[in-house]
TrEMBL record:
Belongs to the pseudomonas-type ThrB family. The lineage of its organism: Bacteria, Pseudomonadati, Pseudomonadota, Gammaproteobacteria, Oceanospirillales. The keyword Transferase applies. The gene is thrB. This is Homoserine kinase. Gene3D superfamilies: 3.90.1200.10, Phosphorylase Kinase, domain 1. One of its GO terms (biological process) is threonine biosynthetic process. It is an enzyme of class 2 (transferase). GO terms for molecular function: ATP binding; homoserine kinase activity. It comes from the Bacteria.
Length: 319
């Protein structure tokens, strides 16, 4: 159960008095998650989600509020934070920062079909077209600079062959990206795995958990999606899912020539990003709570598949 700070009905009822959301009826802790305490809150007027922030840099929370407000105002399917009667969204509850959200419909798609892939690609392309104009800034905390700085911490825990692989890949990333100028920038989700989306049938109920959100290369976000949504159990790319997502995405925001050139390397870099981050959680910085970390092997497999097979050709954009 991902509830690290228990709350009573009385605490939540008093908290809700700041908002115009009705009276508390039920409070339920939500299983899942690894960082924050999450509760389903039902009032006589609304279905809501209450999040207490247990870890991370709390001074960065206004960035996430502003980003979600911005995307919500542009009618993206995101949980725009609920603001109180004075227009304030971010509050404190049980001495933790707290945000209240509308509860979005749907479930995580474990094996997304092609319609769901099309919808996801279209929505991400729309979001990136909009997010290029978002005024907030938060540098990508998991970009190439982070890989360069952090990879040495896990070398003692992996095989000599994998040590060489990791070092060689980072050298390759440095070499390739130094040949190009700045790629198109904007606000990113930063972690848009299947379990950070909700689908009600083939309708996207919402993209959730923006707490890896940042600003940086839009292509980074797209590569994360392709590695998760379009990879089979062996790490190989599924051509139908790959083409469906990328066709829908590029109908909203076509990739420029530099993005097309570095695309295979970006797929590898985002695979290494998750391999490294999961290794760090397992061996170096385990979670504060008794939760099972994600398996690093998944993204080691994906990285090796991308190295062995490259990226599939990008689908051509129809003018």
């Amino acid at each position: 159960m991902a509830v690290f700070t228990p709350l009573s009905d009385a605490q939540v009822a008093a908290f809700l008095e700041k908002f115009d959301v009705g009276q508390l009826q039920t409070l339920e802790g939500v299983a899942g998650g690894t960082e924050n305490s999450t509760f389903f809150v039902t009032t006589d007027q609304h279905l809501l989600v209450l999040t207490l922030f247990e870890q991370g840099e709390h001074e960065e929370l206004p960035f996430f509020v502003d980003l979600l407000d911005y995307l919500d105002e542009h009618r993206l399917p995101v949980p725009g934070p609920v603001h109180d009667r004075d227009g304030i969204a971010l509050h404190s509850l049980a001495d933790k920062p707290a945000l209240l959200f509308p509860r979005l419909p749907g479930r995580h798609p474990e094996a997304p079909n092609l319609i769901q892939c099309q919808v996801l690609g279209d929505t991400l392309g729309h979001m990136h077209a909009i997010s290029q104009h978002f005024p907030g800034r938060r540098p990508n905390p998991r970009d190439l600079h982070w890989l360069q700085a952090m990879h040495h911490k896990v070398l003692a825990y992996i095989s000599p062959a994998d040590q060489t692989l990791m070092k060689d890949e980072i050298d390759e990333f440095e070499s390739v990206f130094s040949q190009y100028g700045e790629l198109p920038q904007g606000a990113l989700h930063g972690d848009l795995f299947r379990d950070n989306t909700l689908f009600d049938g083939n309708q996207l109920g919402g993209m959730i958990d923006f707490y890896n959100g940042c600003t940086g290369d839009l292509l980074f976000d797209l590569a994360i999606v392709i590695n998760d949504w379009a990879s089979d159990e062996n790490g190989h790319l599924d051509r139908e899912r790959y083409d469906t997502i990328l066709n829908a995405y590029q109908a909203r925001r076509p990739l420029n020539s530099d993005e097309q050139a570095v695309w295979p390397v970006m797929l590898r870099m985002t695979a290494l990003r998750y391999w490294l981050s999961r290794l760090l959680v397992v061996y170096v910085d385990p979670p504060a709570h008794d939760l099972t970390p994600h398996d690093p092997q998944r993204f080691e497999t994906i990285l090796k598949a991308r190295i062995a097979q490259g990226a599939l050709p990008l689908p051509e954009v129809t003018p």
